[in-house]
Specification:
Blueprint lengths: L1 H14 L5 H8 L8 H20 L5 H52 L5 H5 L1
Length: 124
């Protein structure tokens, strides 16, 4: 997952005494002549999104960013486990629905034949 990779990258960068967040954003939008205009535009949009995220979460340094990413990762893990539990429950409910459809389909046949005695009822 991207969140896991981002979390690992931040841990490594914080340990290496990485550059400030402003330098990281500046590296993203560096004016490399080998980049196409499309890539430059994409990098600029990514840098703008990073800046909006950092400002919106009042993040000013790498440890704060690491804490925020860890918080997001925990939220993501919680949501994923809830989704998995809900998917399992939905499969159970689908099976119950199929069984109820069978019950309603064959209920009339059962009611019609329940008074029969002998081999006909035994085969039923």
């Amino acid at each position: 997952m991207q969140i896991n990779r981002l979390n690992e990258w931040i841990k490594v960068e914080v340990q290496k005494k990485s550059p400030t967040l402003s330098k990281i954003i500046a590296q993203t939008i560096d004016d490399n002549p080998e980049k196409s205009n499309w890539q430059k535009t994409t990098d600029l949009k990514a840098a703008a999104n990073m800046l909006v995220f950092l400002q919106g979460n009042h993040i000013e340094n790498s440890p704060q960013l690491q804490d925020k990413v860890a918080e997001i990762k925990n939220q993501n893990d919680t949501i994923c486990s809830q989704i998995q539990a809900n998917e399992r429950r939905m499969k159970e409910l689908d099976e119950h629905i199929k069984q109820s459809e069978n019950y309603f389909m064959y209920r009339n046949i059962h009611d019609k034949n329940k008074h029969l005695e002998g081999w006909v009822r035994d085969d039923y």
